């Protein structure tokens, strides 16, 4: 048993010393709701490239669609498609910026991601 532990520690140390980063960050979680404000939190400030996960605990289908997907001047950065009840949609992360999004099925549902490069300074974008 001790031999296995030593191999795991040495293996991890080898990865760390080789410059390979181990991603241990947990995703930022956003809940989809059937009532206002619909996405909770509605406008989180997160660090760039942090994973993001939207959970749908409601009894209806929803989407998480970047507003650029329907606007002529924008580009579509993410679109979940239909997220069934009890399911989730995840992104590996986004670069710094502000990203508005909505539910294609229920257009009244709107949210925003505020993504910043600095973990200690709120985004002023």
Q: What would a concise description of this structure say?
A:
With 125 residues, this protein is an alpha/beta fold. 13% of the residues lie in helices and 26% in strands. It has a single domain, classed as Cupredoxins -  blue copper proteins (Immunoglobulin-like), CATH 2.60.40.
Topology diagram in text:
Elements: H1 2-17, E1 28-32, E2 39-40, E3 45-47, E4 52-55, E5 65-66, E6 88-91, E7 97-102, E8 110-116
Parallel strand pairs: 1-4, 3-8
Antiparallel strand pairs: 1-2, 4-6, 5-7, 7-8
What would you note in describing this structure?
The strands form 2 sheets. This protein has a 4-stranded mixed beta sheet, with no helix packed on it. It contains 1 helix and 8 strands, in the order αββββββββ. It is globular and about 35 Å long. The protein has a single domain, classed as Immunoglobulin-like (Sandwich). The N terminus is likely disordered.
Q: Which CATH top level class fits?
A: Mainly Beta
CATH-derived topology:
Immunoglobulin-like
Structural class, from secondary structure content?
Answer: alpha/beta
The major pleated sheet works out as: 4 strands, mixed
Poorly predicted spans:
1-24
* Beta-strand content estimate: 25-35%
User: What is the fourth-level CATH superfamily?
Assistant: Cupredoxins -  blue copper proteins
Q: Give a count of the beta strands, DSSP E runs of length 2 or more.
A: 8
**Coarse shape:** globular
Task: Summarize model confidence as the mean pLDDT.
Answer: 80
Largest sheet strand order: 2-1-4-6
What fraction, in percent, of the residue positions are helical? 10-25%
């Amino acid at each position: 048993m001790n031999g296995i532990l030593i191999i795991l520690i040495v293996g991890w140390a080898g990865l760390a010393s080789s410059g390979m980063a181990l991603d241990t960050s947990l995703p930022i979680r956003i809940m989809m709701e059937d009532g206002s404000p619909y996405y909770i939190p509605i406008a989180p400030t997160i660090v760039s490239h942090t994973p993001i996960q939207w959970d749908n605990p409601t009894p209806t289908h929803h989407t998480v669609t970047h507003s650029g997907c329907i606007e002529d001047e924008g580009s579509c950065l993410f679109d979940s498609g239909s997220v069934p009840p009890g399911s989730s949609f995840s992104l590996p992360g986004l670069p710094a910026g502000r990203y508005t999004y909505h539910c294609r099925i229920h257009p009244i549902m709107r949210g925003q991601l505020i993504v910043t490069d600095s973990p200690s300074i709120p985004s002023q974008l």
